[in-house]
Amino acid sequence: MNNILKTFAILLLLIISLSCKQETDKGKEKITSKSSASENYNVSILLDLSDRISIQKNPNPTMEYYQRDLGYIKSVSEAFTQHLKSKRIRQIDDKMQLFFNPEPKDPDINSISQKLKIAIDKNNASKDLLNSINSNYASQTSKIYESAIKDNNFIGSDIWNFFDTKVKDQCIEKDSRNILVILTDGYMFYDNTIMKEGNRTSYITPEWIRKNGLNTKDWQKKFKEQDFGFIKAGNDLSNLEVLVLGINPNRNNPYEEKVIKAYWTKWFTNMKIKYFEIKNADLPSNTEKIIKDFILEKKS
To answer: pTM of this prediction?
Structure first.
Protein backbone atom coordinates (compact mmCIF):
# COMPACT_ATOMS: atom_id res chain seq x y z
CA MET A 1 0.00 0.00 0.00
CA ASN A 2 2.85 2.38 0.88
CA ASN A 3 4.47 1.70 -2.51
CA ILE A 4 1.25 2.59 -4.28
CA LEU A 5 0.97 5.86 -2.36
CA LYS A 6 4.60 6.70 -3.13
CA THR A 7 4.08 6.03 -6.84
CA PHE A 8 0.93 8.17 -6.86
CA ALA A 9 2.78 11.03 -5.11
CA ILE A 10 5.64 10.88 -7.65
CA LEU A 11 3.20 10.96 -10.56
CA LEU A 12 1.38 13.91 -9.00
CA LEU A 13 4.64 15.84 -8.63
CA LEU A 14 5.56 15.13 -12.24
CA ILE A 15 2.19 16.41 -13.47
CA ILE A 16 2.49 19.60 -11.41
CA SER A 17 6.07 20.16 -12.61
CA LEU A 18 5.08 19.67 -16.27
CA SER A 19 2.15 22.04 -15.88
CA CYS A 20 4.37 24.75 -14.39
CA LYS A 21 6.91 24.35 -17.21
CA GLN A 22 4.17 24.78 -19.82
CA GLU A 23 2.98 27.97 -18.14
CA THR A 24 6.56 29.25 -18.07
CA ASP A 25 7.01 28.46 -21.78
CA LYS A 26 3.80 30.30 -22.59
CA GLY A 27 5.15 33.30 -20.73
CA LYS A 28 8.35 33.16 -22.77
CA GLU A 29 6.36 33.16 -26.00
CA LYS A 30 4.47 36.25 -24.91
CA ILE A 31 7.67 38.07 -23.99
CA THR A 32 9.25 37.19 -27.35
CA SER A 33 6.21 38.48 -29.20
CA LYS A 34 6.27 41.76 -27.30
CA SER A 35 10.00 42.25 -27.82
CA SER A 36 9.68 41.95 -31.61
CA ALA A 37 6.81 44.46 -31.59
CA SER A 38 8.91 46.93 -29.58
CA GLU A 39 11.78 46.92 -32.08
CA ASN A 40 12.78 50.40 -33.22
CA TYR A 41 12.27 51.18 -36.91
CA ASN A 42 14.36 53.53 -39.00
CA VAL A 43 12.53 53.77 -42.34
CA SER A 44 13.95 55.75 -45.27
CA ILE A 45 12.38 56.44 -48.66
CA LEU A 46 14.57 57.38 -51.64
CA LEU A 47 12.74 59.05 -54.53
CA ASP A 48 13.97 58.84 -58.12
CA LEU A 49 12.71 62.16 -59.49
CA SER A 50 14.15 61.60 -62.96
CA ASP A 51 12.10 61.82 -66.16
CA ARG A 52 10.64 58.39 -65.40
CA ILE A 53 7.77 60.32 -63.76
CA SER A 54 7.29 62.64 -66.76
CA ILE A 55 3.73 62.48 -68.05
CA GLN A 56 4.90 63.59 -71.49
CA LYS A 57 7.79 61.14 -71.87
CA ASN A 58 6.34 58.14 -70.01
CA PRO A 59 2.54 58.41 -70.04
CA ASN A 60 0.50 55.55 -68.64
CA PRO A 61 -3.26 55.58 -69.28
CA THR A 62 -3.97 53.11 -66.46
CA MET A 63 -2.23 55.16 -63.78
CA GLU A 64 0.62 57.63 -64.13
CA TYR A 65 3.90 56.53 -62.56
CA TYR A 66 4.04 59.43 -60.12
CA GLN A 67 0.57 58.43 -58.88
CA ARG A 68 1.82 54.89 -58.33
CA ASP A 69 4.72 56.29 -56.32
CA LEU A 70 2.28 58.19 -54.13
CA GLY A 71 0.34 54.98 -53.55
CA TYR A 72 3.52 53.14 -52.57
CA ILE A 73 4.49 55.92 -50.15
CA LYS A 74 1.01 55.76 -48.61
CA SER A 75 1.46 52.04 -47.90
CA VAL A 76 4.92 52.67 -46.38
CA SER A 77 3.60 55.35 -44.01
CA GLU A 78 0.62 53.17 -43.06
CA ALA A 79 2.93 50.27 -42.23
CA PHE A 80 5.12 52.60 -40.16
CA THR A 81 2.18 53.94 -38.15
CA GLN A 82 0.79 50.41 -37.71
CA HIS A 83 4.13 49.43 -36.20
CA LEU A 84 4.08 52.46 -33.87
CA LYS A 85 0.56 51.68 -32.68
CA SER A 86 1.65 48.13 -31.79
CA LYS A 87 4.09 49.54 -29.20
CA ARG A 88 3.68 51.02 -25.74
CA ILE A 89 4.39 54.75 -25.61
CA ARG A 90 7.52 54.25 -23.48
CA GLN A 91 8.94 51.83 -26.10
CA ILE A 92 8.61 54.18 -29.07
CA ASP A 93 11.86 55.45 -30.56
CA ASP A 94 11.33 55.32 -34.33
CA LYS A 95 12.09 57.38 -37.44
CA MET A 96 10.85 57.84 -40.98
CA GLN A 97 12.48 60.13 -43.53
CA LEU A 98 12.51 60.92 -47.23
CA PHE A 99 15.52 61.55 -49.48
CA PHE A 100 16.47 62.67 -52.98
CA ASN A 101 19.89 62.53 -54.55
CA PRO A 102 20.82 65.08 -55.73
CA GLU A 103 18.60 67.54 -53.92
CA PRO A 104 16.18 69.32 -56.29
CA LYS A 105 16.94 72.96 -57.07
CA ASP A 106 13.40 73.92 -56.07
CA PRO A 107 13.71 75.24 -52.47
CA ASP A 108 10.05 74.41 -51.84
CA ILE A 109 10.69 70.70 -52.46
CA ASN A 110 13.63 70.70 -50.06
CA SER A 111 11.53 72.52 -47.46
CA ILE A 112 8.77 69.93 -47.81
CA SER A 113 11.23 67.06 -47.43
CA GLN A 114 12.33 68.47 -44.07
CA LYS A 115 8.73 68.21 -42.86
CA LEU A 116 8.79 64.54 -43.79
CA LYS A 117 11.63 63.69 -41.42
CA ILE A 118 9.76 62.23 -38.49
CA ALA A 119 11.38 61.21 -35.22
CA ILE A 120 9.02 59.86 -32.59
CA ASP A 121 9.90 58.83 -29.05
CA LYS A 122 8.21 58.61 -25.65
CA ASN A 123 8.59 62.38 -25.18
CA ASN A 124 6.58 63.50 -28.20
CA ALA A 125 4.44 60.47 -29.05
CA SER A 126 0.73 61.20 -28.90
CA LYS A 127 -2.43 59.83 -30.43
CA ASP A 128 -2.85 62.99 -32.51
CA LEU A 129 0.70 62.79 -33.86
CA LEU A 130 0.39 59.11 -34.78
CA ASN A 131 -2.94 59.76 -36.50
CA SER A 132 -1.49 62.67 -38.49
CA ILE A 133 1.46 60.85 -40.08
CA ASN A 134 -0.41 59.24 -42.97
CA SER A 135 -2.29 62.36 -44.04
CA ASN A 136 0.85 64.48 -43.66
CA TYR A 137 2.93 62.15 -45.83
CA ALA A 138 0.18 61.92 -48.45
CA SER A 139 -0.29 65.68 -48.80
CA GLN A 140 3.39 66.66 -48.65
CA THR A 141 4.67 64.02 -51.09
CA SER A 142 1.89 64.94 -53.50
CA LYS A 143 3.24 68.51 -53.48
CA ILE A 144 6.74 67.23 -54.27
CA TYR A 145 5.62 65.30 -57.35
CA GLU A 146 3.33 68.10 -58.56
CA SER A 147 6.20 70.58 -58.31
CA ALA A 148 8.68 68.29 -60.10
CA ILE A 149 6.25 67.56 -62.94
CA LYS A 150 5.22 71.19 -63.30
CA ASP A 151 8.86 72.32 -63.39
CA ASN A 152 9.54 69.67 -66.07
CA ASN A 153 13.30 69.98 -65.49
CA PHE A 154 14.22 66.53 -64.32
CA ILE A 155 17.77 66.55 -62.98
CA GLY A 156 17.99 62.77 -62.74
CA SER A 157 18.66 60.54 -59.79
CA ASP A 158 22.09 59.52 -58.51
CA ILE A 159 21.24 56.33 -56.66
CA TRP A 160 24.75 54.91 -56.94
CA ASN A 161 26.29 57.94 -55.24
CA PHE A 162 23.61 57.87 -52.55
CA PHE A 163 24.73 54.35 -51.61
CA ASP A 164 28.40 55.32 -51.84
CA THR A 165 28.30 58.47 -49.72
CA LYS A 166 25.06 58.73 -47.75
CA VAL A 167 23.43 55.40 -46.90
CA LYS A 168 25.64 54.51 -43.93
CA ASP A 169 25.39 57.97 -42.35
CA GLN A 170 21.75 58.75 -43.08
CA CYS A 171 19.88 55.45 -43.32
CA ILE A 172 21.56 53.17 -40.79
CA GLU A 173 21.33 53.49 -37.02
CA LYS A 174 22.66 51.15 -34.38
CA ASP A 175 20.03 49.12 -32.49
CA SER A 176 17.32 49.85 -35.08
CA ARG A 177 15.76 47.91 -37.90
CA ASN A 178 16.93 49.92 -40.90
CA ILE A 179 14.67 49.79 -43.95
CA LEU A 180 15.27 51.65 -47.21
CA VAL A 181 12.48 51.83 -49.79
CA ILE A 182 13.64 52.96 -53.25
CA LEU A 183 11.15 54.18 -55.84
CA THR A 184 12.79 53.86 -59.27
CA ASP A 185 12.34 52.31 -62.70
CA GLY A 186 15.51 50.27 -62.19
CA TYR A 187 17.76 52.20 -64.55
CA MET A 188 20.63 54.26 -63.17
CA PHE A 189 22.34 57.18 -64.84
CA TYR A 190 23.62 60.52 -63.64
CA ASP A 191 25.93 62.83 -65.63
CA ASN A 192 28.28 63.57 -62.72
CA THR A 193 28.62 59.93 -61.65
CA ILE A 194 29.78 57.98 -64.68
CA MET A 195 32.32 55.32 -63.73
CA LYS A 196 33.47 52.13 -65.37
CA GLU A 197 35.72 49.36 -64.04
CA GLY A 198 35.90 46.58 -66.59
CA ASN A 199 32.27 45.68 -67.20
CA ARG A 200 31.24 47.04 -63.80
CA THR A 201 29.62 50.47 -63.98
CA SER A 202 27.83 53.06 -61.86
CA TYR A 203 24.99 53.09 -64.37
CA ILE A 204 22.65 50.94 -66.43
CA THR A 205 20.58 52.17 -69.39
CA PRO A 206 18.67 50.50 -72.23
CA GLU A 207 21.47 51.61 -74.57
CA TRP A 208 24.13 49.99 -72.37
CA ILE A 209 22.19 46.73 -72.24
CA ARG A 210 21.73 46.71 -76.01
CA LYS A 211 25.32 47.76 -76.77
CA ASN A 212 26.73 44.88 -74.71
CA GLY A 213 24.48 42.20 -76.13
CA LEU A 214 22.50 41.65 -72.93
CA ASN A 215 19.30 41.65 -74.97
CA THR A 216 19.56 38.05 -76.22
CA LYS A 217 18.72 34.66 -74.76
CA ASP A 218 22.40 34.21 -73.82
CA TRP A 219 22.44 37.35 -71.66
CA GLN A 220 22.84 35.40 -68.41
CA LYS A 221 25.95 33.55 -69.59
CA LYS A 222 27.56 36.79 -70.76
CA PHE A 223 26.53 38.61 -67.57
CA LYS A 224 28.24 35.98 -65.42
CA GLU A 225 31.34 35.20 -67.49
CA GLN A 226 32.19 38.82 -68.32
CA ASP A 227 31.30 40.10 -64.84
CA PHE A 228 28.71 42.74 -65.73
CA GLY A 229 27.11 44.62 -62.87
CA PHE A 230 27.27 47.74 -60.74
CA ILE A 231 30.49 48.85 -59.06
CA LYS A 232 30.24 48.07 -55.36
CA ALA A 233 29.28 51.17 -53.33
CA GLY A 234 29.69 49.88 -49.78
CA ASN A 235 31.63 47.11 -48.04
CA ASP A 236 29.16 46.04 -45.38
CA LEU A 237 25.51 47.10 -45.43
CA SER A 238 24.33 43.99 -43.60
CA ASN A 239 22.31 46.12 -41.17
CA LEU A 240 20.13 47.45 -43.99
CA GLU A 241 17.04 45.97 -45.65
CA VAL A 242 16.05 47.29 -49.08
CA LEU A 243 12.76 47.23 -50.97
CA VAL A 244 12.93 48.45 -54.59
CA LEU A 245 9.60 49.37 -56.17
CA GLY A 246 8.66 50.53 -59.67
CA ILE A 247 10.95 48.52 -61.98
CA ASN A 248 9.81 49.47 -65.48
CA PRO A 249 11.91 47.75 -68.19
CA ASN A 250 12.04 48.72 -71.85
CA ARG A 251 9.40 46.54 -73.49
CA ASN A 252 11.41 46.24 -76.72
CA ASN A 253 13.73 43.75 -75.02
CA PRO A 254 12.05 40.67 -73.48
CA TYR A 255 15.14 40.08 -71.30
CA GLU A 256 15.42 43.63 -69.97
CA GLU A 257 13.57 43.00 -66.72
CA LYS A 258 15.76 40.01 -65.85
CA VAL A 259 18.93 41.94 -66.67
CA ILE A 260 17.90 44.90 -64.49
CA LYS A 261 17.04 42.64 -61.56
CA ALA A 262 20.31 40.72 -62.01
CA TYR A 263 22.25 44.00 -61.74
CA TRP A 264 20.48 45.07 -58.54
CA THR A 265 20.63 41.59 -56.99
CA LYS A 266 24.37 41.27 -57.63
CA TRP A 267 24.95 44.78 -56.28
CA PHE A 268 23.04 44.23 -53.06
CA THR A 269 24.66 40.84 -52.53
CA ASN A 270 28.15 42.30 -53.06
CA MET A 271 27.37 44.93 -50.41
CA LYS A 272 26.22 42.19 -47.99
CA ILE A 273 22.61 43.32 -47.87
CA LYS A 274 20.86 40.19 -46.61
CA TYR A 275 17.22 41.09 -47.09
CA PHE A 276 15.96 42.78 -50.23
CA GLU A 277 13.14 42.58 -52.74
CA ILE A 278 12.95 44.07 -56.23
CA LYS A 279 9.43 44.60 -57.58
CA ASN A 280 8.00 45.83 -60.87
CA ALA A 281 5.86 48.92 -61.31
CA ASP A 282 2.30 47.90 -60.48
CA LEU A 283 -0.91 49.43 -59.24
CA PRO A 284 -0.66 50.45 -55.56
CA SER A 285 -3.59 48.16 -54.72
CA ASN A 286 -1.54 45.19 -55.94
CA THR A 287 1.61 46.33 -54.15
CA GLU A 288 0.14 47.28 -50.77
CA LYS A 289 0.45 43.78 -49.26
CA ILE A 290 4.04 43.39 -50.55
CA ILE A 291 5.07 46.66 -48.90
CA LYS A 292 3.34 46.03 -45.58
CA ASP A 293 4.59 42.44 -45.35
CA PHE A 294 8.16 43.56 -46.01
CA ILE A 295 8.03 46.30 -43.37
CA LEU A 296 5.97 44.61 -40.69
CA GLU A 297 7.26 41.04 -40.86
CA LYS A 298 10.25 40.39 -38.63
CA LYS A 299 13.25 39.08 -40.59
CA SER A 300 14.99 36.22 -38.81
So the answer is: 0.86
